[in-house]
UniProtKB/TrEMBL annotation:
GO molecular function: methyltransferase activity
Organism for this UniProt entry: Amycolatopsis alkalitolerans
A Pfam entry, by short name: Methyltransf_25
PANTHER family on file: TRANS-ACONITATE 2-METHYLTRANSFERASE, TRANS-ACONITATE 2-METHYLTRANSFERASE-RELATED
Key words, A-Z: Methyltransferase, Transferase
Protein name from the UniProt record: Class I SAM-dependent methyltransferase
Amino acid sequence: MTEPPHVAAVRESYDTVAAEYARRYPIARVDPVARAMLGAFAEIVHGPVADLGCGPGRVTAFLAERGASVSGVDVSPEMVLLARRAYPHLRFSVGSMTALDTGDGELGGILAHYSTHHTPPGWLPIVFAEFERTLAPGGQVMLATHTGDGEHLRPAQAYGGRPVSYESYLLPSERIAELLGEAGLAVTARLDLAAGRRPGVAFLARKR
């Protein structure tokens, strides 16, 4: 598959801001209620877990500390480099959630923690189909993301004025749940998040 333009934009942007992002967002910045849901995900998931869009690895490590057999994947080589330096005992690799380097049914769980909102809505069915393909039957997904009424954001700078070219797509939570269901991922829990600058949602879903 030819790489979609949005993937290249995300890679280039996060390579640029990686160090500043890691400095600004330690695990302590994650909302305590959202951290509790991450803990619940670690408790219910069985088998290998892929943290997709893992960034500097802080959430990957959080899951590992709670017993999950987890590895991280990120499209940004700079983010992966930071993650490997910070958590040398964990495995991190460069990859895209639009085409995962994982066999059918190999995963017990997938975490997408604020890593899908840069994906154009037309590509989300492809991403969620990859989730479904790589999960074993009964496998678990936790997806947390920003939400909105369909806003399309095009920031020129981020994280201390560094140039970025990625875009963000803020969909209603109901639409995200529909897309998960259409991909064969049944939502089992939902947490609406009001903390921070933007509203968000966290879903737990299971492969049918």
